[in-house]
Specification:
The chain has helices at 3-9, 20-40, 43-59. The protein has 67 residues and is mainly alpha-helical. The model is unreliable at 1-10 (pLDDT under 50).
Length: 67
């Protein structure tokens, strides 16, 4: 993979193209997974929480989440 291709994968989405419904959907998914993590304490689920939080931050840069 060339360096240019790698950076293309990291491009942020156009914030104007992300709807509030999409943001709410991602937030709901994150909260569901986080709830599961709190119930189980499984590290693999924790990693999924971090991944979902990162995805949400890419869609909405004002979003932050500390686990």
């Amino acid at each position: 993979m060339s360096e240019n291709n790698f950076f293309q994968l990291l491009e942020l989405p156009d914030r104007a193209s992300v709807t509030s419904e999409e943001i709410q959907h991602f937030l709901n998914e994150l909260l569901d997974i986080y709830s599961l993590y709190l119930q189980t304490g499984i590290s693999l689920i924790r990693e999924e929480v971090i991944s979902k939080a990162f995805e949400l931050h890419l869609k909405d840069p004002s979003f932050s989440f500390i686990i």
